[in-house]
Amino acid sequence: MATFNGTEGEPIDLAQAAAWTANYRNTEAEKSAETVIKAHFFGREILQELLNQEGCVGIRMYYALDNEGQKQLVLVGADADGNDIEELVLDGSRICPPNCSEGGNLNG
């Protein structure tokens, strides 16, 4: 397994990101617009708390389904060896809809 150093990830072009989010929305089109989750929002403070854990070099995001079948993201810190730091596990994001950005290229 590769080691992590905190620089993982990279910017992508806004047009590419918009196309990818549109692809996702289009695959979910058969569902009611009210039930299609487009995004999750986590606040700065809880993300910083996650990143401030000893040895944490980044965040791993797990796709999940809650007991009602609703899509969720579960976040944990990860160390330089790529192992989860499970002392603090996050959920409780604000989902979109209804908490969506007004306008913008990613919300289509």
Strand and helix layout:
Layout: H1 14-27, E1 39-41, H2 44-51, E2 58-65, E3 71-78, E4 84-90, E5 94-96
Could you explain the architecture of this structure?
The protein is of the alpha+beta class and 108 residues long. The chain has a domain at 38-96. The protein contains 2 helices and 5 strands; from the N terminus they run αβαββββ. A 3-stranded antiparallel β-sheet has the order 2-3-4, covered by helices on one side. A two-stranded antiparallel ribbon has the order 1-5.
CA gyration radius, whole angstroms: 16 Å
**Which word captures the global form?**
globular
Q: What fraction strand?
A: 25-35%
Count of DSSP H/I helices = 2
Average predicted local confidence, pLDDT: 88
Give unreliable regions as ranges: none
Entry summary:
By secondary structure, this protein is α+β, with helices and mostly antiparallel strands. Helices cover 20% and strands 27% of the residues.
How would you describe this structure in keywords?
single chain; alpha+beta; 2 helices; 108 residues; two-stranded antiparallel sheet
